[in-house]
Amino acid sequence: MGIRRQREYGGIQPGIPLGPLALRLPFIHYRFEWADYIQGLLMCTVCLSIIPVLTENLGMPFEVALAIVILNGTMYLMHVTFGDPVVPGWITPAIPLIVLYCQGFAAGAERMQALIAFQMEFGIFCIILGITGLAKKFISLIPNAIQSAVLMGAGFAAIMMIFKPDPAKAASRSFDTIPVTLTICIGLAFYLLFSQSFKAMKKKHKWAYYLGNLGMMPALALGIVVGPLVGEIKWPTYAGVTFFSQPDFTTLFRDFTMLGSIPLPSASMFIASIPVVLSTYIVVFGDVIQSQALLDDAQKYRPDENVNYNPNRSHIIFGGRNLFMSVFGPDISMCGPLWAAMQVVVSDRYKNGPKAMESINGGAGSFRWGTWTGYFIAPIVATVKPILGLGLASTMLVQGYVSVRVGVLKSRGFNDLGIAGVAGAVVATRGAAWGLAVAAVLVALQYIGKEWKNAYVVEEAVFPLDSPEVIAKIVEEHMKESKG
């Protein structure tokens, strides 16, 4: 076991078969990639930024929320360990929907029961789809307008989390609390992530390439300095800080799980969570497709390794993670199949050949071992503690941008866009149950009768709203209406 297994050219990375899974351990079944490990140490900041949401919505102390982050971070290791060569992450677009769902229940034990019911039901649902292989068939039954509505609604809700005035909760992530810091940092984040000019710079300059590969990290690092200078955030303090962080697992298990004082959720809670489960799955299925696309693209550059991504296996793993967390540490961020930004970074380095990264499993696994280590290093936690609200606000705004963009592209035509816009706004303001109901009614009314058969047969391209194609289409539809 002390000698690392070698891969044949063009073969699958060595591992121990476990039915649909494959056990892979660092140093034994894949080379440990120190570059990705170090980057993971830095990027644990993003994982920690969910703590303000947990403390505010679930009423738990910082140390208890840290324990949940560590449990979730430990579950991240399960993907590469059991054969899924990805960098897993939150189900980020669903976070505002889950917050809205939880706020519909009384704070305390009832809210925890509702979260447990939702996460447990979601986990079991994903495991069943993974075992049966029905994931793709299930999602194909959901009309594009409804999928688009959920994604756009999630994007609207993410942005509203930051900009909606709420005097009762002056959270550190609110724009009204940190306007200057958030404006500067989110501006930098959007420039590094989406700017065409910066993409051109990345191709010309190595420093720009490496800076861009850090994702949100440069913006958050800037916040550590800018926030205190403008008086919106405190400087980090290290008084009494030891080397190791101090998560409170005892209080977590005793006061916030079914292992302690939280009763088993009622049947009505499991029923009430169904719309949120369906909405979350619509979001998560997009992550599975994106995982496949990113790995297929990386595979073109690396004929020496058969990456062997299996969506069904991924469902089993992230479904199992959610089922585990529902019992041992219910978590609003949820357990998703992909951290897209970091999967891109790892895949890009992997494309440079075996010397840069022997196996995609090594890069993804080493990165997640790095984030896991970072949770336990108290000086890292103390350094980022003042900017956790900023980290979450920046993440939500970026996610809002991406969700709305993807939601628009999900629509197959102008009718879909109209339905998605209306139902998406309802999702963001009234929750998943109302939003899905509105979307379903609008779809039925729009395509009732013989039009239903043709509604999703011919795909209409969606262009920018000020494009010649859109203007011509609007003129054409108005001409038809005037003749009618």
What does the model show?
By secondary structure, the chain is mostly helical. It has one domain (33-410). Helices cover 64% and strands 1% of the residues. It is built from 24 helices and 2 strands. It has helices at 34-48, 51-58, 62-76, 78-81, 95-102, 109-132, 135-140, 144-163, 179-194, 196-204, 206-212, 217-229, 249-255, 267-272, 274-299, 311-328, 340-350, 360-376, 378-384, 388-410, 414-430, 432-446, 451-454, 468-483, and strands spanning 16-18, 21-23. β1 and β2 (21-23) form a beta hairpin. The longest helix is centred in the middle third of the chain and has 26 residues, at 274-299. The relative contact order is 0.21. The model is unreliable at 455-467 (pLDDT under 50).
Give helix and strand order, one letter per element, not per position. EEHHHHHHHHHHHHHHHHHHHHHHHH
> What is the count of structural domains?
1
Give the termini distance in whole angstroms.
77 Å
Q: Which regions contain 5 or more consecutive residues with pLDDT less than 50?
A: 455-467
- From the helix content, strand content and strand pairing, which structural class follows? mainly alpha
Morphology: globular
Number of strands: 2
What is the CA-based Rg, rounded? 23 Å
What count of helical segments does DSSP give?
24
**Which sequence of strands runs across the widest sheet?**
1-2
Which range best describes the helical content: under 10%, 10-25%, 25-40%, 40-55%, 55-70% or over 70%? 55-70%
Proportion of strand residues: under 5%
Mean of the pLDDT scores? 86
Largest beta sheet, briefly?
2 strands, antiparallel
